[in-house]
Amino acid sequence: MSRVPVIDPTEWKNIWTLAEQKNGKLHAVSYELLGRGRVLADQRNCQLCTVVMGDKISSEDVQELIERGADRVYCVEDQRLRSFLVEPQARILIDLIERYHPEVVIAAATTTGRTLMPYVAAQIHAGLTADCTGLAMDQETGCLLQTRPAIGGNILATIKTPTARPQMATVRPKSTRIPERVPGKTGEVIKIDRVEYLMGSRVTFEKFVADADGCASIEDADIVIAGGAGVRKAEGFDAIEQLADLLSGSVGASRPCVDHGWKPYPTQVGLSGKTISPRLYIACGISGAIQHLAGIQTAENIIAINSDANAPIFQVADLGIVGNMFEILPALTEEIRLLKESSTSN
Amino acid sequence: MRIIVPIKQVPETSNVKMDPVTGTMIRTGLEAIINPLDLYAIETAIRLKEQMGGTITVMSMGPQQAQKAIREAIAMGCDDGVLLSDKAFSGADTWATAYTLTLGVQKLGGADLILCGERATDGDTGQVGPAMAAMLDLPLITYVNKIELAPDGMLRVGRLVEGGREVLSVHPPVLLTVVKEIAVPRLPTLRGIQRSKTASLQTWGPADVSAELDNIGLKGSPTRVVSIQRPQVTRKGEMVVVKEAAEVDRAAKLIVEFLKQRNIL
Q1: Paired sense of beta strands B164-170 and B155-161, if any
Q2: ipTM, two decimals
Q3: What would the pLDDT profile of B125-140 be if each residue is shown by its tens digit?
Q4: Are B78 and B102 in contact (CB under 8 A)?
Q5: What are the beta bridge partners of residue B146?
Q6: pLDDT tens digits, residue range A193-246?
Q7: Which site among A319, A325, A343 would you substitute to test the B interface, given the most B Cβ atoms closer than 10 Å to its Cβ?
Q8: A6: number of Cβ within 10 Å
Q9: Which residues from chain B sit within 8 angstroms of residue A110, using beta carbons?
Q10: Which residues in chain B have their CB less than 8 angstroms from residue A335's CB?
Q11: Which positions in chain B touch A303 (Cβ < 8 Å)?
């Protein structure tokens, strides 16, 4: 392993994003990344390129990547890329990085991105910043300014990688909007073949088992309605679930609920669970321990319902309701149901 | 089976209070503890050892005080510990940290299984485990919530991902990062605490692990912190108090109004 590379930055050009797909379908975060990347590419006056790896990549998906901002798409197709395995994907990405020398590579801070990116960065001695919420280009130096929350969101650190290239970062999903489609926009498509020798994996993929309820996971959901200790028992989530159903939202839980076994771990919001950025977060019976607040502060809108007026959750709420969640939630559900019914009957 | 568990000592934040004015964590007087998410890796290691026999070495990079975290892990049931501690290691980012821990693993002659927590609750990157796997050229499975031993020596591993879980199989040696769901960490026993006081805990510096000085600490770190801001987390939201039954409907209507305003309904 070599020292921190001091690279001639002029040899490293263009902004790359990693598209993510599962079972042949591109994840929305692939487009969010294009929104981030487009801004950086325009700041640097360079191209925005995106890398897609998968079993089969449809020309419609490629066209959508181009129409949402990509100037160039690198497609790597192989049936062994159907499910995520870190070794082949890392070898391919390193191969592409060494061939094309991108200045910046950004990926989503998903289970895929947070596995692949450090596995790659470690091997090429690149700098990598996790879970960024802000990215900007220093136009003069070409340094990527990467802003991320740390210590439970109590500080925002801005980080750069002065000499090593590429500059790598994972970006929190839903931290930016999907850019508008520009119909008819053209771009270059480069098919990468002869990747056979990169495909080996010591880990074998056996199967994927989807969550039973079929709801979007809380990190993917636009609306998350979560319960806390104030829910008091597993059945207390019924009122939350009814509202979530109506709003097509997902149900989250604070740590005490998961520790009591009322809700499974994948629904846990907060520092020892998931950090989420939904459009709407409704906290029901959640007092708002700092660990919990760290997981929701990038939510766009926060409503808190809690019987304790002094609960810290109210400090971060856009709308706070001091009262009994078991009275307010059914009333709210009813109110929304009536609204939806009247709008469909009109 | 030879198991190594890399851990990190972090400030205890579970009972921390927020400063009502700045909206940030009050960090004075915080105790140092084992990163809570590392406890699950320690517990998993102990359970695997109970099933198959073997040894568990706890490893950490940090100041001398991190010995305390290692002794706590030994008190839970690990066998011995290694602390990588030296001024030259300080200021390390995730790359240099992974490099240093990798050298420690290599000096121990490698392992069949390296178990890491998902991430540390202070730095919150989750990058050191995967980076170590790459540097050690080990296969890697992250977000592991289940490990089953197959008779042929394979490990069948559950992995929590968005919207479900994956099942994967791998033959050791392998590096796994585990999530909270995998097991409930045990408390140290009195006997364990006694044993932890005398268990072997070696401290290694850069020369002990033949570190290239260009690769450790701040010097080996490709990233630099440019600035730190304390964000204002407080939002100036409206607050409504519901005391009587009649006010419940008003509150519900208010929420609906809010949702309409924000284009959610």
Answers
A1: antiparallel
A2: 0.91
A3: 999 999 999 999 999 9
A4: no
A5: B158
A6: 989 999 999 999 999 998 876 667 898 899 999 999 999 999 999 999 999 999
A7: A319
A8: 10
A9: 162
A10: 249, 252-253, 255-256
A11: 255, 258
Is B20's pLDDT higher than 80?
Answer: no
Residue whose token pair is 């709308």? A319
Cα of B143 to nearest chain A Cα, Å: 7
Instruction: Name the helix (H) or strand (E) containing B114.
Output: strand B113-117
Kindly list the residues from chain B whose CB atom is less than 8 angstroms away from the CB atom of residue A327.
242, 245, 248
Strand duo A72-77 + B238-241: pairing: unpaired
- Residue A81, SS3 per DSSP: helix
CB pairs under 8 A between A and B: 307
Q: Is residue B249 less than 8 Å (CB to CB) from chain A?
A: yes
Kindly identify which residue of chain B lies nearest to residue A249, measuring between CA atoms: B264
Q: Is B169 on the interface with A (CB under 8 A)?
A: yes
- Are A156 and B164 inside 8 Å of each other by CB? no
Under the phi-then-psi rule, with left for phi > 0, alpha for psi from -120 to 50, and beta for the rest, what region is B108?
alpha
Alpha-carbon distance of A222 to A81, in angstroms, equals 28
Structure tokens at A24: 């042949």
Least confident of A82-86, A222-226, B10-14, B40-44: B10-14
Q: What angle do helix axes A59-67 and A29-44 make, rounded to 10 degrees?
A: 40
Q: Among A292-301, A317-326, B6-15, B34-43, whose mean pLDDT is lowest?
A: B6-15
Q: Quick one: chain A helix, strand, coil %, rounded to 5?
A: 35, 30, 40
Which of B140, B179, B237 comes nearest A86 by C-beta? B140
pLDDT, chain A, mean? 92
- Nearest in space to B174 (alpha carbons), one of B250, B111, B97, B262: B111
What does the DSSP 8-state code read for residue B91?
A: T
B156 in contact with A at a CB cutoff of 8 Å?
Answer: yes
CA distance A195 to B205: 42
Order of strands across the sheet with A280-284?
A250-253, A223-227, A280-284, A301-306, A319-322, B238-241
Chain B: closest CA distance from residue A110 (Å): 8
Residue type, B125: T
Which residue among A158, A202, A315 places its CB closest to the CB of B226?
A: A158
> Cβ B168–A301 below 8 Å, yes or no?
no
Who wins on pLDDT, B240 or B66? B66
**CA geometry: angle at A194 spanning A193 and A199, to 5°?**
105
